[in-house]
Design goal:
With 419 residues, the protein is an alpha+beta fold. It folds into 3 domains: 31 residues; 118 residues, Sandwich (Peptidoglycan synthesis regulatory factor (PBP3), Domain 2), CATH 2.60.410; 242 residues, Beta-lactamase, CATH 3.40.710. The protein is 32% helix and 24% strand. The chain is built from 11 helices and 17 strands. The protein has a 6-stranded mixed beta sheet with strand order 14-16-17-12-11-15. A 5-stranded antiparallel beta sheet has the order 2-1-9-8-7, sandwiched between helices. Helix 2 crosses helix 5 and helix 3 runs antiparallel to helix 5. About 8% of the residues have low confidence.
Amino acid sequence: MFVREVGRLVLYRKLFILMVLTLMLSGLTPRIEAAPRRRHRVAAAEPVPEISLNQIHVLGNRPAPFALEAKAAMLIAADSGSVLYAYNEHEKMQPASLAKIMTFYITLKALRDGRMTLNTPLTVSEKAWRLSVDQSVSHMFLDVGQQVSVRDLLYGLMVSSGNDAAITLAEYQAGSAQAFTDMMNQNAREIGLTETHFANPDGLPTEGEYTTAYDMVKLARVVISQFPDAVTYTGAKEFTFHKIRQRNFNTLLFYDSRVNGLKTGHVNEAGFHLVATAHANGMVLISAVMGTRSMEKRRTETEKLINWAFNTFVTAQPDWRKSTPASIRVYEGAASEVAIGPDSAPYVTVGRGEEKRVTLVTALKASYLVAPVVKGSQVGEIQVLLDGKPEAAIPLVTQQSVAPAGIAGRLMDRVRMML
């Protein structure tokens, strides 16, 4: 009797599968929901900020034991994005020559995209030349009508802080300084600089321009992350053009070998600014010190920040593979699984000796995907925990695309999902 009942159940199951396949082939797929499947190490649903170039988060922050003599300042660990120091970081002030960082960034993008090369000759206009002979502003000594390579102009822009270099680069790329300024503000919006508005490519005092230490740190982070070779220009101590040796206005380069950039700025109304980058012991720092009373002060206050950070913090790269599956199941696809991984390396910054306080936990949105799968699709996140508390999250994405399977494969997978 028992054997007969088991046989009957098996027969019913086969008939059910046959009916489902028949309905699918006729286009009348029944609406049957699969039971929810167990997720891989799903952490508690606590909102956490994402690591992103457009969002700077705090991880294990420690207050600095000093106050800076500046109107505003900010310091982050570049790889993790951890904010290590912040003071009046959202206070708006004139950017001065810090605006040239955006001019620099847009030019590097043009080089990357093939719209020019380092050897492309650019012609100096009368507008740019007039800035070159104006002794009240910084310049790289360009002559009207002269042709100068993009390479020399980049050195002149970042070492000499040449306003003439900024205008020459702007006019070539956009046709006019004003059109290029529009490009600057468009790029600012694209990378999330919500507290910045540019009025010209060089940063000379103009009504309506402003920025913050917060935005300048974000911009610098974008530059060095997208263009690691930018330090070729930002870290050069001097530059010779027209047989004139010009020293970098960033005097910190001459005092601290850990510093390799980035840009100074000065305008009477706002004071002396310095956005700096430094690296040591596997950690990269980005600082913005704005509104100091002298060139010397912007250097010493920046160095104070950098010394404290390197002595206090360390940036580590936990092994995310220990907590994250290598792949996720794919149904109805040409492949039965797809590799997954973080969209960026999960760096974390903590106090020295506290690396063991950091753990990673993977939270998947679901235990499987249904084809087609697009490369870069987010399937979950790797949560960064400090003492068990979520502090940040790195998006977990698919590493390849998966095309749909043939009709037979799709039908069989649909049955598997329902059963």
